[in-house]
Automatic annotation (TrEMBL):
PANTHER family: MALONATE-SEMIALDEHYDE DEHYDROGENASE, METHYLMALONATE-SEMIALDEHYDE DEHYDROGENASE [ACYLATING], MITOCHONDRIAL. The keyword Magnesium does not apply. It comes from Vibrio aquimaris. This is methylmalonate-semialdehyde dehydrogenase (CoA acylating). Signal peptide: none annotated. One of its GO terms (molecular function) is methylmalonate-semialdehyde dehydrogenase (acylating, NAD) activity. Belongs to the aldehyde dehydrogenase family. Its EC number is 1.2.1.27. SUPFAM superfamilies: ALDH-like.
Amino acid sequence: MIQSVPLFIGGEFCQSQTTEWVEVTNPATSEVIAKVPCATEQEMEHAIKNAAETFKSWKDVAISERARVMLRYQHLLKEHHDELAELLSKETGKILIDAKGDVWRGIEVVEQAANIASNMMGETVENVATDIDSYSMIQPLGVCCGITPFNFPAMIPLWMFPLAIAAGNTFVLKPSEQVPLTAMRLAELFEQAGAPKGVLQVVHGRKEQVDTLLKHPVIRAVSFVGSVPVAQYIYKTGTDYNKRVQAFAGAKNHMVVMPDANKAQVINNLVGSSVGAAGQRCMAISVAVFVGSTKEWIEDLKTEMAKMQPGAWNDDKAAYGPLISREAKNRVVALIEEGKAQGAVCQLDGTQCNVEGMPQGNWLGPTLFTGATTDMSIYEQEIFGPVLVCMEVDTLDEAIELINNNPYGNGTSIFTANGAAARKYQHEIQVGQVGINVPIPVPLPFFSFTGWRGSFYGDLHAYGKQAVRFYTETKTVTSRWFDDDIPTGPNLTIQLR
């Protein structure tokens, strides 16, 4: 029997009354494993209003108690880590090691949410003028919402609602309709951690439900991760309706390879960062920029990439899993064919990949291009598949110019043994997250995820101190007390309670 995914409203799991459902399929087999509802207008309204009502009391709960909820939650997440990873693998197709990483990076953000008090401390200046003091307080916004993608169904929701709720807000989560099961389990564990009913709501749906969140007057802030066109729509619509919005969009991440780099490390890291998770991550390396003589390493890179083959989530020999859907695979295959037609040389072609016993899976083998130019589709567009495009330049300056001319600015890395080259690169590159001999420089959660330019719409980023500022407002108080008002006399007592 196919599972019907519930809604989570007011602390209760309930079946939707909708007539519109979306099938959830296993990407490795195309088998339907669940169906997820497109919440009705009344259900969406109920979730938002319940969150608004709960906020009235939750914002006044002591910050230490809010932190304790997160402490209990991270403990439960660790206890159920492997279970969550297996569930995540089955609905995304990720191999188990990738799924475990997905869950663990989310847990790290919950740990940071347990440290919320130190991140909500205001500032005080005594005697800004004679007998006048000023101080600031950090206070929650109200009802916030998150709209999350398919590729990290544990990590990205955990980027959002734990910090927002720890800061004193309530939260409405709309996970991807392609992978709703992990989000529902996260909600179950959050309830078990002692979170009050109503601080977290989980709704499901597509554009209609997203539009409700973007336009509803009660929603104060919107967090989103997804594709460029949708991020642009989310940002414009949300801000048009006077919401605070952070919208994380696409990427085209380059790795620069210098002649003095460790060749074995370069090849190993290029292979893993380009085809790992089937290339379905916004921090994947999709362009390798070979400087000078390093272009001679491409043949060895091809040999190692060819060894990386996809497979089922529980196959220990699999390097990565399938693409999320048949539509996603068809899109990547079309871009590969377009790259060939535009004159790029396809050194490795993964379009005919098959996995034994799983003929209906959305499989795509590792694919490697050389001879690409910046006006080709395989360079201009985020492919979101196990595809690596190789570019060749003569100098580091040319590499920096190439990358800075690209519209995206999510992540980049340089592999070199030269400290001066590394410093020049990190200083001049116009990308938010830079790795030096690190292929995927995703920051730990006491920093923030800081994509730039066409990879991000907004001003305050996810997790870290910036996320706390995103989910809060600053109130400044200026006070003056008069000496003449101080009570005096023999009968004056101070009562403590």
